[in-house]
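Suppose you are handed a protein chain with no further information: no name, no annotation, nothing but its sequence. What can you learn? This example shows the usual starting point.
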Amino acid sequence: MLLIGRILFAAIFIVGGIGHFANRKAMAGYAESMGVPAAGAGVLLSGAMILAGGIMVAAGIWGDIGAILLFAFLVPTTLLMHRFWKIDDPQMQQMDQVMFFKNVSLTGGAIVLFWAFNQLDLPLTVTNSLIDRI
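A reasonable first move is to predict its three-dimensional structure. Written in structure tokens, the prediction is:
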């Protein structure tokens, strides 16, 4: 069950990472419109982070590092790209609020996975935790 959960959790990041590379110009344009500095480079960097992090979590290859990559992506992305409190249109505000709290929930999942990879001897992993138990 843990492996299935890891794969399902990671799927959104793996697909999203591929999308960052496949649609990088459109994504960079949107990020730029949201005021993200160096949006083109940011899209490539964030795409690499979530693709690598998703694969690492799903496969159990230094899953603790993968969870940190996902966390490091989610926090700034949530705060920069889903500022629902600044949107006037009620429908757009509601949609962005849902995306904001989806990311907050995924951030919580990344924290739990970091802890699990770091503190437990998880089955069905390729490597152990890279970071010593904290």
